[in-house]
Write the structure tokens for this entry.
Amino acid sequence: MLRATFKVFPRWGLALLLGPVAAVAQSNAPAPVAMPPAATSTNDADRFFEQFAVAAKLVQDNRADHAALVMDVLAKNLNGSPWLDIALLKAAALQENRAPATALENYALLKRRLDVAPYFQGNAERAQVFRVALQGAIDRGINRIRLQRIRDALAEYHARYRQYPESLTKLAVLGYVEMPDVRNASGRLYRYIPTGMQFSPGIAYQQYELETIPAEPFAANAPRLIGTTQVREEPRQYAALFQDAGRAEPARVAENQIFQGFFVAAVAEHGAILVTPERVLVLPVRP
């Protein structure tokens, strides 16, 4: 007889199916959300890219909320840095628009991990580069959430007063947004310029310019990773094969090397992680 095994995650009130089901009950209730199968790989890097592929397909199908759940559950089932942290970062980025409070909780957890996780406390170059990149990516995520709160507050202000405020400080003082939300993660006021001046009879601003921070793509397309090649058996190590403009042969790049301005922080069988001082890019292998 087949048995079903479930793992309960109280935070979402969900039981995730980890094995085959013996029978399916007939009912008129809405069909439950189909969860992806549990990861079959035992290596953290392989498990990450296995489930990342599932989440990427969900994002492609406009189901980012389900993709965020996949990454959040993945983070809870990985053993340590840096794969756990990247999974949590990707979950938070997907939650920014749909569940900003949850995204902020995950960003706060990531910040704490940067301070206490053993991986980030050593002197290894890769760990330190990862730390800087994650900190920058976290700050960008927090800033995107705060900027959206400002945009919502400006819309509410304009709906009431038929104009935009002279400053973000005024917007906060009048209670349309929290004071911490008008400053970026480093404590600087966001760039805000009221424009479209009219006299009616006093000065009224009908437009504005506000600082913007674009969201990162869930799965980056560039540089184009066309494959990986194993360069060592124990422990397993891989080099990335990138499509390089002007060259017939792909560029072979090992971990801890620079390619097109990106630091190659990690390479696994099914993908690579590239970073800059404020970005973390996940590149799955694309044939």
